[in-house]
Amino acid sequence: MIPSIAVLHFENQRWRSPRLWIPLFLLWVPALLLAPLAVLVLAGLSLAGGIGPWRALRVLWEFLCSLPGTHVHVRADGKTVQVRVF
Known about the structure:
Largest sheet: 4 strands, antiparallel
Order of helices and strands: EEHHHEE
Structural class: alpha+beta
Number of domains: 1
Number of strands: 4
Helix content: 25-40%
Shape: elongated
Number of helices: 3
């Protein structure tokens, strides 16, 4: 299943931001409109790299489908960034 929502959370020693819910499913509308151009670019790049265009498309789709459940937590210099993808 493709990702539908990402949650971002930022904080440092002085403040905490509210969790930002980003609806990724809204990004699929412009992605569908740009899909013909993206397929041509992907096919050209895959052929230039010596990879079959169908294999490149399959790998891209598998990558997108593996994103739900991703949790990234980064802490450095007293600042924290958290990203979760549902």
